[in-house]
Structures are given as structure tokens and as C-alpha cells.
Give the backbone structure.
Amino acid sequence: MKKPRKGAATESPTKQLASFIAKFDPKVARLIRSSRMAMRKRFPTASELVYDNYNFLAIGFASTERTSDCIFSLAANAKGVSLFFYYGAKLADPNKILLGSGNQVRFIRLESAATLSKPQVTELMRTAVAQAKTPLPATGGGQLIIKSISSKQRPRRTGS
């Protein structure tokens, strides 16, 4: 089990996430915040599952609080942010924009949050939601849930 950092138990999930994002260079932090805001606007009923792990800060967008119900995630490291499709290998990708070659996950690197509004990206997201094992709730607001915090992490800033 990942050990929460000191003081984490008393901070709200919102404050914890803000502190995770603050570890990044300002440019990457802005991209994380703007991309997250765009995803929240597009999928307001999704639960956000946050993993501040060794390699990445990952914010999953899921239909429940179970990791297995995750549809997308924003994953950030010192180099930038990507949008991961958990079951991307099953998505039709006529524009060949998905990267990766594993059995399950595919991703798109985000130049800016505007990438999330490109027609070919929105079509992939629409298809991923339609194919989700557990549908997103029709109403309500999703929860922000801190799932794990790794005590050891790669540097979140370039040159660190």
C-alpha cells in the first residue's frame, strides 16, 4: 500500500490535487489544470481517480470509483500531458492519431487543452464512452478521489 505523505489525511482531495500539480513546471501545471477543466466540463458526472505515482500524476475519469471503470486518464510527467484511453486498442482510429501498441491502452499527447476539442479526438472520446463497460452516470457530479500517493517519484520538473 502506498504511504500517504505527511499531512495528506487532513487535506481535502482538492487541496491534495493542487499540491500534486504544483510540483510541475508552471507550463505543464497550466496544461494539467486546463486539460482537467476541459475534461470535467465534458464529463461532469465522471469520478476523478487520482494517482500521484512514481512515473506520472494520473487523473482517471471513471463511471464509478473503481479503477476498472476508468475510461480516460490525463497522465502528466515533467515532459507534458497525455490523454490515455484505457481500452484504446479496441477503438476504431481512422485518423491514426492514437499512439501506443500495447494490448489495451492507447494515448494522445496534448499540445494544449484545445487538442481535446479537435473533432477526431472528440469522436474517439464519444466512442470510448459508448463502449464503456459501466456507463457514466446520467446525472450528478463526480467525486474527486485520491487513490494513491507514492512516496518515491520521478522529478516533476525538467532539470530536477
About this structure: The longest helix spans residues 26-42. The chain has three helices and six strands. The CA atoms of residues 25 and 157 lie 5 Å apart. The longest strand covers residues 70-77.
